[in-house]
Specification:
Elements: H1 2-15, E1 27-30, E2 36-39, H2 52-55, E3 58-60, E4 66-69, E5 72-75, H3 131-136, E6 144-145, H4 174-193, H5 200-207, E7 213-218, H6 224-227, E8 233-239, H7 242-250, E9 254-257, E10 270-276, H8 285-298, E11 299-310, E12 326-333, H9 335-338, H10 343-349, E13 357-358, E14 367-376, H11 382-389, E15 393-400, E16 403-409, H12 426-435
Parallel strand pairs: 7-8, 7-10, 8-9, 10-11
Antiparallel strand pairs: 1-2, 1-3, 4-5, 6-12, 11-16, 12-14, 13-14, 15-16
Length: about 450
């Protein structure tokens, strides 16, 4: 049985050569019968041990300086072996075979921190003491300008600091704690239910990456890009909202709780990065710059990032129009979600003066409420300017469906850019998006 098992393990290792991102060098397996066989594992490959090989064999990296591969002696380089296994929580039952296969391993999200409850404070959207009265007169559909106010920046560690900041972190400006963190705490299930299909341009960006690429999805939300990633591209996400991280994990995405301005990922390890609909939730230029700097930090030299944030310029036909650079944008939280949401979170970001409305014929039906979320609206060149200010080379900048976007690359001496990362490739990618019904004609003229 050992010979057949060895041949099957070798076949599995060959078939899964591009299936994972772990860097594994040659490994040896040995059965109790004395059979010994060498299995060559290319970089970024995965070896699955099952049956007897999993339970009865010994495996490891032999201590020597060279290996024989295809009849040739090859000097060893740095070798890293990552072993993942399921550990039993209870002893074997009477009569249970010791070599029985356990269920497949499931990866769950790492909950690094739970968002802290936000303090209740006066609504910042209307200046002066008349704010409460003015708030009562507002309707539930219009965005509200936000008066600029000083805000402390998130304290950061050194360039290699990969620790996640607390999700309700000290140093987060009050307007973000109330109208970003608390908003998503309250609306996470409803928000996730409205986010189904990936943006066409994001799909094009991911499809252009080489097979085996590792991508950091900073602000991953419900994990929709991870779930829809092309074969051979693995996304690892983080988000400040614990509720969205849990939803992403339920959908099969790899996600952890972490702050965009202090990303919980190591430096220089990712082939690509996404920052989609994240930057417009940061209330100061310093915090927006810190978030882009974190994207640049996690990229390897030659790695590419796609940045996207809401634009102040919207299409004339859009229901959403903005008059200032910082606004509170309403969100109608459906009654079936509002009834299950945290009362503290709802109260923190609820729009004043807008009554809850029953969603049904009876007075006891779940009531919808209107919440506010903070957004900074970007001007042309602002997103690309942040990328350049963080040392990235901007390959392309464009306006698409009410958003400013750019693709930027971390420069590397002597590293050739991929074929798609050139201005000449940009029109065809825009054409792909236009062919899928995305507005790519550019922002409307300022009135």
């Amino acid at each position: 049985g050992g010979d057949e098992e060895a041949r099957r393990v070798v076949a599995e290792a060959t078939a899964l050569g591009e299936a994972a991102v772990a860097a594994l060098p040659p490994m040896e397996t040995a059965a109790g019968s004395g059979l010994q066989t060498a299995v060559l594992l290319p970089r970024r490959s995965l070896l699955v041990l099952a049956g007897e090989a999993r339970h009865a064999w010994r495996h490891g990296i032999a201590a020597r300086r060279t290996d024989v591969v295809g009849g040739a002696t090859v000097a060893r380089e740095r070798r890293v072996s990552l072993t993942v296994r399921r550990v039993r929580d209870a002893p074997l039952a009477m009569g249970e075979p010791s070599a029985a296969d356990a269920p497949p391993l499931t990866l769950h999200s790492a909950a690094l921190a739970a968002p802290a409850a936000c303090e209740k404070a006066p609504h910042p959207s209307v200046p002066g003491a008349a704010g409460a009265a003015a708030g009562a007169a507002r309707d539930a559909s219009a965005s509200v300008p936000v008066r600029a106010s000083p805000a402390a920046a998130m304290p950061r560690g050194g360039p290699g600091d990969g620790a996640a900041a607390p999700a309700g972190g000290a140093g987060t400006p009050d307007i973000e704690r109330r109208f970003v963190r608390a908003f998503y705490d309250a609306a996470a299930p409803h928000f996730a239910a409205t986010r189904h299909s990936p943006w066409p341009r994001v799909s094009s960006f991911l499809s252009a990456l080489a097979s085996g690429s590792l991508v950091a999805d900073v602000g991953c939300g419900n994990g929709k890009y991870s779930v829809a990633a092309p074969p051979g591209v693995l996304l690892v996400g983080c988000d400040a909202c614990q509720g969205l991280v849990e939803i992403a994990a339920e959908r099969g995405a790899l996600a952890v709780a972490g702050d965009a301005v202090r990303c919980p990922f190591p430096s220089g390890r990712f082939d690509g990065a996404l920052s989609i609909a994240v930057l417009h939730h940061l209330s100061t230029e310093e915090r927006r710059r810190s978030a882009v700097a974190e994207v640049a930090r996690v990229l390897r030299p030659g790695g590419a990032a796609l940045l996207q944030a809401w634009a102040r310029a919207q299409a004339p036909t859009s229901k959403r129009q903005f008059g200032t650079a910082d606004e509170l944008v309403p969100w109608r939280l459906a009654g079936r979600f509002a009834s299950k949401a945290s009362t503290d979170a709802v109260d923190s970001c609820r729009r004043g003066g807008v009554p809850a409305v029953p969603e049904g014929p009876s007075a006891s039906a779940p009531k919808a409420v209107v919440l506010d979320r903070y957004c900074h609206l970007f001007e042309e060149g602002e997103v690309a300017g942040l990328a350049r200010g963080c040392g990235l080379d901007v390959i392309e900048e464009w306006w698409e469906a009410g958003n400013w976007c750019c693709v930027a690359v971390r420069p590397a001496s002597g590293t050739a850019l991929p074929a798609w990362a050139t201005p000449g490739r940009a029109p065809s990618l825009r054409a792909e998006a236009a062919g899928q019904g995305v507005d790519v004609d550019g922002p409307p003229a300022r009135r």
